[in-house]
Specification:
By secondary structure, the chain is an alpha+beta fold. 36% of the residues lie in helices and 33% in strands. Helix 1 (16-31) packs antiparallel against helix 3. The N and C termini lie close together (5 Å).
Length: 100
């Protein structure tokens, strides 16, 4: 198994209301990929961080293996979500991939 963890910080110019809607859209879009992209074992997006957090949301995903993760990164369904729901609204992205 391979874990793929992403932390995002949304752009500063977004209002609190916009951030809430964007986070919901990212969660819906990414979690919806489980049945569409081969090799995903589990995929969850946490959008309810505590005040002590310095990131706005987190993707916690598990893949069958490294090849499945590589396939996910270029899969058209994932690219569509990333290009429309994630990248336009994020200023910082941190990633950690590791074998579990």
């Amino acid at each position: 198994m391979v874990k793929h963890i992403i932390l995002w910080t949304l752009k500063d110019e977004l209002t609190a209301e916009e951030k809430d809607e964007i986070k919901k859209g990212i969660k819906e879009g990414l979690e919806g990929l489980k049945e569409k992209v081969p090799g995903i074992v589990d995929i969850k997006v946490n959008i309810n961080g505590l005040e002590s957090s310095n990131a706005d949301l987190m993707l916690d995903s598990t893949f069958e293996n490294e090849e499945a993760l590589k396939g996910y990164s270029v899969h058209p369904e994932h690219v569509a979500v990333a290009d429309t729901k994630v990248r336009p609204f994020t200023k910082i992205r941190s990633c950690l991939d590791f074998e579990a």
